[in-house]
Amino acid sequence: MKSHVAFLPSPGMGHMIPLFQLAKKLTLQHGFRVSFIVITTGASAAQNQFFHSAAAISPHLSIINLPAADVSGVISEEMRVVTQIAVIARESLKPLKPILAELKPSSLVVDIFTTDAIDTCTDLRIPVYSFFTASTALLTLSLYLPTLDREVEGEYVDLPAPVEIPGCRNMPTADLLDQVKDRTNDEYKWYLLHVSRLPYTAGILVNAWDDLDQQRIKALTENPFFKNLPTPPIYPVGPLIKDDEILTEKDATILAWLDSQPRESVLFVCLGSGGTLSSRQLIELAAGLELSRQRFLLVARPPTDASGAGAYFSVGSGGGEDADGLSVYFPDGFLDRTRGVGLVVPAWAPQMAVLRHRSTGGFLSHCGWNSTLESLVCGVPMIAWPLYAEQRMNATMLVEEVGVAVKVVADAEAEVIGREEIGRVVRAVMEGEEGKVIRRRAGELKENALKASENGGGLSRFVDICHLDI
User: To pair with 427 at 20 to 30 A between CA atoms, which of 52, 74, 79, 388?
Assistant: First the structure.
């Protein structure tokens, strides 16, 4: 009899893709039967397209769409992203119990914002595992957060020193997750609620591998603080990244342009599926790329001055039919002056295909964890440009610990990162000595990631546990 595991990701492609990659691997490589339960409320165009193509992967992998919930009375535009995710998840999971009772999975894998399922699974006697889709740096902070909440008065950003997480590097308050920087906001309360439930799971899967972040994985498994929480067993199952993409005619045009460029000469500029820049910042970015005199592939979408996560719920919805439609947002004549040296792509590009391409020599990234892992697996050095959520702590880790990135440095008094700084850091990565050092390190991490994937690591242990749960 096949082991049957159900998955329940939060809304958002950054949550769904890594969970789906694990589901796919369990089905295709380990003989599991998988039920992948999808929250459809407010689904983006990218999500709908993704699962439309995913349904045919294997007869043993079933996509189960939860009925869309009416959230019109509980969601408002003023709510921050995490509050919206948490509310959508809670409303969408109301019919979950009869669905799980009928499916009868041997275990359920949730992520950080679907922990409401723990109570349901307790009633049904189904073990629950958490797949923590972000970095181990955020996982250690998240497990430590309930203690921090009890022991610290006032705002964490006002602490006179970095946060001391047991067994880990100290975390500067400037790098803290956005969601914990205002304890009076509902976003903080939702996040605290969900991370407080992590110790009640049967295990925590993390999208990393031992050699990538050995110190924190060791702290999670050996440090007295984490052992006494108690922290459930930790399974480093990474790197799990999107391993294939359906290429469109537009994508083929992008790759053909890359084919015509010299090896490792193009900087790929993409700030994630949900990331957006302000009007002024987009102008400075374009001007900085031009100033650098380096080749570039820029994925751009219309700017928004409201939030760095402005496209989180609308990813895949377009934003201009062609680059000329975006010209109004760039410096005058930018597209004409950079034609041939640069390529501007509206809204979306096949990221893995670009990162794997021989012409790609650098990646200006928001440092979301999925993009980070994709860059590491492809051996591409990075320019760290964090926008929101936990991206600042990821950027610091990549620069100071892993050694595969340089970070843009903002003027403390400026509201945007200036074109001179952008030009400087692009040249440093693409042609400078600093770039050569991090390029070598990126190549080493690529080999290391390949070995971790081949060896199985924590994934093999998780597979063994699942077989025992039958």
Answer: 388
Please indicate whether the domains covering 4-240+455-468 and 249-449 agree at the CATH topology level: yes
203 φ, ψ to 5°? 175, 160
Report DSSP letters for 237-285, one per residue: ------------HHHHHHHHHHHTSPTT-EEEEE--SS----HHHHHHH
Burial of 307 (0-12, 13-18, 19+ CB in 10 A): middle
Q: Which residues pair with 269 in a beta bridge?
A: 298, 364
State how far the Cα of 213 lies from the Cα of 141, in Å rounded to an integer.
Answer: 14
How distant, in Å, are the alpha carbons of 273, 309, 354 from that of 368? 10, 11, 17
pTM exceeds 0.90, yes or no: yes
By three-state DSSP, how is residue 455 classified? helix
- Report the CATH number of the 4-240+455-468 domain: 3.40.50.2000
- Going along 164-265, which residue ranges are E strands? 203-206, 234-236
**Domain boundary assignment for the chain:** 4-240+455-468, 249-449
Tell whether the model's pLDDT for residue 319 goes beyond 50: no
Using 50, 70 and 90 to split pLDDT, how confident is the model at 317?
very low
**Residues taking part in catalysis:** 15, 111
Cα Dmax for the chain:
64
- Chain position carrying tokens 């990234």: 365
Distance of alpha carbon 193 from alpha carbon 61, whole angstroms: 31
How confident is the prediction for the chain on average, in pLDDT? 93
β-strands 295-300, 382-384: how paired? Answer: unpaired
Q: What three-state secondary structure class fits 324?
A: helix
Q: Which residues lie closer than 8 Å to 470 by C-beta, 6 or more apart?
A: 1, 3, 4, 106
Does the 249-449 domain belong in CATH 3.40.50.2000?
A: yes
Region for 96 from its dihedrals, namely left if φ exceeds 0, alpha if ψ lies in -120 to 50, beta otherwise: alpha
